[in-house]
Amino acid sequence: MKIYLMLFSIALLSCNQNNPAIVNSAGEWVPTGDSFSLGQAEDVDLIKGMMADFNNLDLGGVQSRWGDTITFYPYNMKEPIIMANEDLGLWMGQFDSVQTTPLKFLPLSNKGQGIRIVHTIQNENRFYKDGSTEKLHLYNIWFINDQNKVTTLRQFGADWGNN
Predict the structure, then answer these.
(1) 133 close to 125: Cβ distance less than 8 angstroms
(2) Most CB atoms closer than 10 Å: which of 1, 2, 22, 91?
(3) Which CATH number goes with the domain that contains 49?
(4) What is the per-residue pLDDT across 83-133, written as a single tens digit (0 to 9) for each?
(5) Number of domains in the chain
(6) d(C-alpha 44, C-alpha 67), whole Å
(7) Domain range holding 103?
C-alpha cells in the first residue's frame, strides 16, 4: 500500500513540473523589455462600474472612478483631450443617452513599470442632445493608477462592428 501511495505521489508531482501551459508573464513592453501578466479582477470591476455609470449618465459615479486629471484619446481625434475631473460634466452633457455593451475585459499588469491596464471591446450607441447618433465598435485601453483611479483612456474604433 505504501508503494502505491508513493508512486501516486510521484506521478502527481511530476504532472506539475515544467508545464508549458503555466505562464506567469508574456509579451513585451518594447521601450523597457518588461513583460505583462494578467491583472487584477478589481481593475475589471472598476471599468465595469465606469461603463454602468456612463450608461446611466451618472456624472458623480463616473467622476469617482477617474483621477484628478483625465487624458482621453478619442477614436476620431489626432490629439488627446486633457481635462480636469470637475470638467467631465461638460463632455458628458452632450449626451441624451448612451448604451454601452461590453464584449471583453482583459486586465494586464506590467509590474516593472507599475502599470495597470484593462483592455475592453464594446459596442456603444451614443444619442446626442442635438438629435444625432453614433453606433460605435470600440477597442479601449484604460490605464489605472495606484489610487485605483482611471487616468487615461485610449480609444480605437472600427467601422465593421456594432451593426
Answers:
(1) yes
(2) 91
(3) 3.10.450.50
(4) 999 999 999 999 999 999 999 999 999 867 778 999 999 999 999 999 999
(5) 1
(6) 16
(7) 26-158
